[in-house]
Amino acid sequence: MEKLVRPSYQEVLSALEHMKSKSSLQEFKSIHKLSAEKVDGIPVLPKSARLNELLEKILNAKKMIEFSRENSTDTLAVYYYNKEMISVSTDDQNFITIFPIGNKDELKKRMAKFYEVDLSFENNPVEVNIGITEEDYDRLHSKTPDELTAMIQDEKVDKRLQRFLLDFKNNHQKADRINFKMKERTSELFTEGSVLFFVPGEKNIWHIKYDEIESGMIYLMSNSIAEYFTGAELLIEKFLEEEPVKPQLNKPAGTKKIDSEKFFSIKRGFSFFYKSNIAVVIGLLCFFINQSSWVEQGGINLFIVFILTESFLLLLSLIACFKEKEEKAAADKRLKTA
């Protein structure tokens, strides 16, 4: 097992200054709440090759899980690089803990420690789901602690909701978060993807389900602490291991050929003229079967019909040279509706 590295804030920031762009440095400082006040006056420790190695992996990671607590200055994030999870956490002692995570249990324990919950609670003491409108849920955030206390003690308020309000009040009327972030290139900043919102209780976790937010409803779902963090662990594992999928259009058969052909093609026009003249020749042969009955009076008329037919076929052959435009437009239409 690789040992953790515990450098000072100043040592980490000094190392980062020589590694990446200022934007990456600012992002790292923002995630881990490294303010100037924390850095000033902290002695610089001797440079560590192991620290530089871990920081390189962190800055080259394309996936990251950020764990957030609104009313805490502590931070925790897990960076994923080359199938390795690296935990980065800060506390109020002016040091950063960088720790390679070797297995799932370690990740779950670090999450539990960060959110200050006890994983030994495997049973859910509440076992309720509460539906609440988005408007009412937003109002809970603006109420004073005394107003929430009054709701908790009000007999007219649903007992199930009162259980949530008590934990919500104890959590400073905020929901904690687990943010799933990723980026396509290491030079870019992380973009936020899915987010888990929840309110930790003493013996259970309230998951804030936003799946039906479009209908104006939010659901407060009680889970046991062990069950919830096991589920979060599985979601994290799936997120880190799955490959990013870029949306692609499935082109219909023949589209590639259409794209590679020229807009105007004499060859295509000549092909049309050649094939159409085969039909004309077959028609003329039918006329010559009884040639003796019309050769004296209809010869000139047949010649005129032949000339007009060939002229018309030449015109159609010219149009056939531009037929690619129609085919490509039709293919583009199919792509848009696919």
Notes on the protein architecture:
- It is elongated, with a radius of gyration of 36 Å.
- The model is unreliable at 246-261 and 325-338 (pLDDT under 50).
- It is an alpha+beta fold.
- α5 crosses α9 (225-241) and α7 packs antiparallel against α8.
- The longest helix is centred in the last third of the chain and has 26 residues, at 295-320.
- The chain has 13 helices and nine strands.
- It has helices at 9-17, 22-31, 36-39, 49-59, 104-115, 134-142, 145-153, 159-170, 225-241, 255-260, 266-289, 295-320, 323-337; strands at residues 63-68, 75-81, 84-90, 96-101, 129-133, 176-182, 191-200, 204-209, 217-224.
- The two termini are 51 Å apart.
- It folds into three domains: 1-102, no CATH class; 120-229, no CATH class; 255-337, no CATH class.
- 49% of the residues lie in helices and 18% in strands.
